[in-house]
């Protein structure tokens, strides 16, 4: 048999194994509210090829490809356990089991590693929590996709309504079409139908009421059967406590803003300061996409090396706030054509660091340039460290953080030598460290951090909402602290 035949036979065998995983992963998700992960990447509702590619990706960050022959036994072992709601990373299970010298079988080791989610230790499955989207633009529609995707188990978050201003004839059909097809993020994974008579969009069986209102004061959500809901404001029209408090109408319990909050509104970066949210806090912000991109790696560097000062330069994709062609704009430069120019603008991300990392006393400055790409940005984070180090040490540290730390859902890591911005469309991490571009000289370090400023940020928003509603289930094996 030739090498070519061997390779093809191996591929077909791995396809068969990955195919056998799919119903097991689906059963765990639907029946037990267990999300199977591979190095922080969900395997729920993934295709055979997607599962194989996710295993192959482990080579970039762990040094060698992870085989489905190694991980299938762990999935099979999970199906035999009395599991409660949780997230279980089979990549980490396989990695830790390989290093374990006690001679435990896969079944024995798995039972021990996830004991906190089994039997008398398991947490109760949560009742669905209502969610309302106020505004249905770029972030609103991506958050909607994520909420619909995560509703598969029937527990957790349930998107009940979106609130928009009326847009004329066939408004709901046009909005459903924008949810169904996206020029950047592709087709919606599932089916979408419209019930014009009931003013509703049905997405993968989820009935989403479309409420038309020009002002928060016009809506009584209990009239639509919505109670104790989380309202996500995607408009950015109100950013302080007084303005956002207008959303606290009948049926709404908490308000989450998808923009930097002003005044005393807490700015939350999930993975960094989400545990500071007070249980009775009704209004909070998810900060900006750039703040979410720089704060996790900044914390990772500060914790290990100390940071004396820093500067962040963001090269940011253009946004809907800019003009397509030159026209009047209240800002000085944003009136110039977005797809034809690089546009210098301001960023509040650097000043927002203090809200998310109050213990970091180092001054952080920042500026931004908008460039003619529709999505994915890069933050160039230049740091003066508290001690000298090497490029290899910094990369090893950030690789470990991306794999095993509590920041592993926020920080990703790539060694691809030819990586460009479009490679990161759809990334669920808030920040991806580009290893090849990283520069370190003594106590100076420059990190190049890619981020999908639309989808990655939307994932962070959903994580914050999961946390405040109590449906952010524990992960096993537990991340290293």
CATH class membership of the largest domain: Alpha Beta
Class of secondary structure makeup = alpha/beta
| Major β-sheet profile | 8 strands, mixed
What level of helicity do the residues show? 25-40%
The Rg value, from CA coordinates, equals: 23 Å
Contiguous low-pLDDT stretches (5 residues minimum) are none
Report, as a whole number of angstroms, the end-to-end distance.
49 Å
CATH homologous superfamily designation of the largest domain:
Dihydrodipicolinate Reductase, domain 2
Counted up, domains total: 3
What gross morphology would you assign? globular
Q: Give the second-level CATH assignment, the architecture of the largest domain.
A: 2-Layer Sandwich
Give the rounded overall mean pLDDT.
Answer: 92
Bin the strand percentage: 15-25%
Quote the CATH topology of the largest domain.
Dihydrodipicolinate Reductase, domain 2
Give a short summary of the structure.
This protein is of the alpha/beta class and 481 residues long.
Describe the structure.
This protein is an alpha/beta fold and 481 residues long. The protein folds into 3 domains: 3-121, no CATH class; 129-259, NAD(P)-binding Rossmann-like Domain (Rossmann fold), CATH 3.40.50; 289-455, 2-Layer Sandwich (Dihydrodipicolinate Reductase, domain 2), CATH 3.30.360. Helix content is 32%, strand content 24%. Strands 8-9-10-5-4-11-12-13 form an 8-stranded mixed β-sheet. The protein has a 7-stranded mixed β-sheet with strand order 15-16-14-17-20-19-18. The chain has a 4-stranded mixed β-sheet with strand order 2-1-3-21. Helix 1 (3-32) packs across helix 2 (48-62), helix 3 (68-79) packs across helix 4 (90-99) and helix 3 (68-79) crosses helix 5. The radius of gyration is 23 Å and the shape is globular. The termini are far apart. The relative contact order is 0.11.
């Amino acid at each position: 048999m030739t090498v070519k035949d061997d390779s093809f036979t191996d591929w077909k065998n791995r396809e068969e194994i990955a195919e056998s995983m799919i119903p097991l992963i689906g059963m765990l998700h639907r029946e037990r509210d267990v999300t199977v992960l591979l190095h922080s990447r969900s395997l729920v509702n993934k295709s055979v090829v997607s599962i194989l590619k996710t295993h192959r990706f482990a080579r970039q960050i762990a040094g060698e490809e992870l085989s489905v022959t190694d991980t299938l036994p762990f999935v099979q072992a999970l199906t035999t356990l009395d599991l409660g709601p949780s997230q279980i990373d089979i990549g980490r299970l396989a990695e830790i089991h390989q290093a374990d010298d006690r001679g435990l079988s896969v079944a024995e080791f798995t039972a021990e590693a996830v004991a906190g989610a089994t039997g008398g230790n398991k947490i109760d499955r949560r009742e669905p929590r209502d969610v309302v989207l106020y505004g249905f633009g770029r972030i609103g529609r991506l958050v909607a996709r994520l909420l619909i995707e995560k509703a598969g188990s029937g527990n957790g978050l349930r998107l009940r309504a979106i609130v928009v201003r009326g847009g004329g004839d066939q408004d709901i059909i046009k909005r459903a079409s924008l949810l169904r097809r996206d020029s950047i993020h592709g087709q919606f994974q599932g089916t979408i139908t419209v019930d014009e008579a009931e003013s509703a969009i049905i997405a993968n069986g989820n009935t989403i009421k479309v409420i038309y209102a020009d002002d928060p004061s016009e809506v009584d959500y209990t009239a639509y059967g919505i109670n104790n809901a989380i309202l996500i404001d995607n408009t950015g029209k109100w950013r302080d406590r007084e303005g956002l408090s207008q959303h606290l109408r009948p049926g709404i319990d908490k308000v989450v803003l998808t923009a930097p909050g002003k005044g005393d509104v807490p700015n939350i970066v999930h993975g960094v300061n989400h545990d500071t949210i007070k249980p009775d806090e009704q209004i909070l912000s998810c900060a900006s996409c750039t703040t979410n991109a720089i704060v996790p790696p900044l914390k990772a560097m500060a914790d290990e090396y100390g940071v004396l000062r820093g500067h962040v330069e963001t090269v940011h994709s253009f946004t809907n706030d800019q003009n397509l062609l030159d026209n009047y704009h209240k800002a000085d430069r944003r009136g110039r054509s977005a797809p034809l120019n690089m546009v210098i603008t301001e960023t509040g991300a650097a000043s927002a660091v203090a809200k998310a990392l109050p213990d970091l006393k180092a001054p952080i400055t920042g500026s931004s340039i908008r460039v003619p790409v529709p999505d994915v940005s890069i933050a160039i984070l230049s740091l003066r460290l508290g001690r000298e180090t090497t490029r290899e040490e910094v990369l090893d540290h950030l690789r470990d953080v991306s794999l095993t730390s509590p920041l592993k859902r926020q920080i990703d890591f790539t060694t691809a030598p030819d990586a460009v911005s479009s490679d990161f469309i759809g990334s669920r991490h808030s920040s991806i460290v580009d290893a090849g571009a990283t520069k370190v000289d003594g106590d100076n370090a420059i990190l190049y951090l890619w981020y999908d400023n639309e989808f990655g940020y939307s994932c962070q928003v959903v994580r914050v909402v999961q946390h405040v509603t109590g449906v952010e289930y524990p992960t096993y094996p537990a991340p290293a602290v």
